[in-house]
Amino acid sequence: MKLPKVRELLEAIKALITGPYTSKFPFKPHEPYPNFRGQPVYNQEKCVGCLSCEEVCPAEAIGHEDSADPSNPIRKIIHYTDTCIFCGCCEAACIADKQGIKLTKEYDLAFFDRKEASESIEKELQLCEICGSVIACKHHLKWIAEKIGELSFSNPTLYQSRLKSLGILDDNIVSALKDHGRSDRVKILCSRCRRDTTLTTR
Ligand code: SF4
Ligand code: SF4
């Protein structure tokens, strides 16, 4: 007769005392292991809307839609859970101290309609004060200004964003010229309008 190996025997005795390794899912919620990598989730407050996560995502599971409507300029950042491979690159690349998007232990992601397989957040956009094109999210400009400190005073877009976020500056800086000229240089501008207002002789 073949005798059981000692290790298997010990495992069997241990299982008798500690109970089974498996959980009773779906009758009881399953508790994933501590390092389990589940669905990433955005943090509306911490995310600055920079799109680094979209840039690095190997599965193209992150996208965004910008609305440059002056009455409500919004960037919608969308995470597609049906495409995500839970690799964690988005969290690793997040400039907001890895807090803008974080992997969770969420694994129960079944859905009937594919439209349900996404989650999104919205961040307010900063538009160019001359041409109305998208510059970046307001939160992102504020984050850069805070990060580089006094160096931001070399860039009117950054220091004006910072002053506006502090409520020090209002929107009443109006150019003396009908068409944009050098007096517009202290506005929040996209790179094209910044170049035009800097190089113009008007
Ligand atoms: S976990 Fe990986 S695949 Fe999923 S959104 Fe983040 S970077 Fe993309
Ligand atoms: S702050 Fe982080 S989560 Fe937000 S867009 Fe940038 S990289 Fe993505």
Total strand segments: 6
List each distinct ligand once. Answer: iron/sulfur cluster
Distance between the termini: 102 Å
The whole-number mean of residue pLDDT values reads 88
Q: What count of domains describes the coordinates?
A: 2
CATH architecture label of the largest domain: 2-Layer Sandwich
Shape: elongated
CATH topology of the largest domain: Alpha-Beta Plaits
In helices, the fraction of residues equals: 25-40%
Q: Return residue spans where pLDDT drops below 50 for at least 5 consecutive residues.
A: none
The total of helices stands at 6
Question: Main β-sheet, in a few words?
Answer: 4 strands, antiparallel
Radius of gyration: 26 Å
Strand content: 15-25%
Strand order of the largest sheet: 2-3-5-6
Structural class: alpha+beta
What are the secondary-structure elements, in order, as H or E? HEHEEHEEEHHH
What does this structure look like?
- This protein is of the alpha+beta class.
- The protein has two domains: 34-126, Alpha-Beta Plaits (2-Layer Sandwich), CATH 3.30.70.3270; 128-202, no CATH class.
- The protein contains six helices and six strands; from the N terminus they run αβαββαβββααα.
- The protein has helices at 6-18, 52-56, 89-93, 138-148, 156-165, 191-199; strands spanning 40-42, 62-67, 74-80, 101-103, 118-127, 134-137.
- The strands form two sheets. Strands 2-3-5-6 form a four-stranded antiparallel beta sheet.
- The longest helix is centred in the N-terminal third of the chain and has 13 residues, at 6-18.
- The termini are far apart.
- The structure holds iron/sulfur cluster (2 copies).
